[in-house]
Amino acid sequence: EAGVVQSPRYKIIEKKQPVAFWCNPISGHNTLYWYRQNLGQGPELLIRYENEEAVDDSQLPKDRFSAERLKGVDSTLKIQPAELGDSAVYLCASEGGRAFKDEQFFGPGTRLTVL
Amino acid sequence: AQSVTQLDSQVPVFEEAPVELRCNYSSSVSVYLFWYVQYPNQGLQLLLKYLSGSTLVESINGFEAEFNKSQTSFHLRKPSVHISDTAEYFCAVSGGGTPLVFGKGTRLSVIA
Predict the structure, then answer these.
(1) Cβ contacts of residue B40 below 8 Å, gap of 6+?
(2) Is the peptide bond before A8 cis (omega within 30 degrees of 0)?
(3) What is the per-residue pLDDT across B1-41, written as a single tens digit (0 to 9) for each?
(4) Are B22 and B73 in contact (CB under 8 A)?
(5) DSSP B7-52
(6) Phi, then psi, of B8 in degrees rounded to 5
(7) Cα distance from B103 to chain A (closest Cα, Å)?
(8) Per DSSP, what are the bridge partners of residue A32?
(9) Neighbour-count burial of A21, counting CB atoms closer than 10 A to its CB (0-12 exposed, 13-18 middle, 19+ buried)
């Protein structure tokens, strides 16, 4: 079974540029999460989807961040425009299936560097 | 609101020695507790979890953690570490419909 896939793995951009991250969750997982992990910190939730509905986006900086999960499968997280403080690893995780209740499966992350 | 405190940011230990990584949590509701491991340049992997039942939970690679409600702790232990255990370890808590809240992580360095 394939795990959570994220791309790109690394991205370097200049400030004020836009950037987008893509996530493909494990097949059949209805719940999808986006986290941001700053250097030396644990992941912090940005947004949670149940199928195509965003059920928790309270921590998403909506002035510059947006996300979508069309058709309830893949998801895209966008930053426009990026700021220096957005440099971090962006993690996607998915969850689903009775056998793995409350267990989130994480992708390898996208490391963003804003210059 | 829930929170997690990992008391040690770095733990160096010699190979085959025992190790304990400490985790304390704060929550006003019943909790689920997790330990995740992150190897270099990889995503987080679930190591073990406590949902209910026995307070001692074990992983397949020799780690164990004990849920202590009175001390609000969920410390991770291993009696004999290997070089391959070198990684970042994150404690996390959820419960009452709230999302996972992670600690800041503990970097375990196993020295040959």
Answers:
(1) B87
(2) yes
(3) 789 999 999 999 999 999 999 999 998 777 889 999 999 87
(4) yes
(5) S-SEEEEETT--EEE--EEE-SS--EEEEEEE-TTS-EEEEEEE-S
(6) -120, 125
(7) 6
(8) A49, A94
(9) buried
Residues in chain A closer than 8 A to B46 (CB atoms): 103-105
Q: In this structure, what token pair is assigned to residue A89?
A: 């690893």
Q: Is the dihedral of CA B32, B41, B112, A40 positive or negative?
A: negative
3-state SS, residue A86: helix
Q: Which of residues 41-70 of B touch A (CB under 8 A)?
A: 41-46, 49, 51
Taking the C-alpha atoms of residue A115 and residue A32, their distance in angstroms, rounded to an integer, is: 29
Low-confidence ranges of chain A (pLDDT < 70): 1, 97-101
Backbone angles phi, psi at B53, to 5 degrees: 85, -140
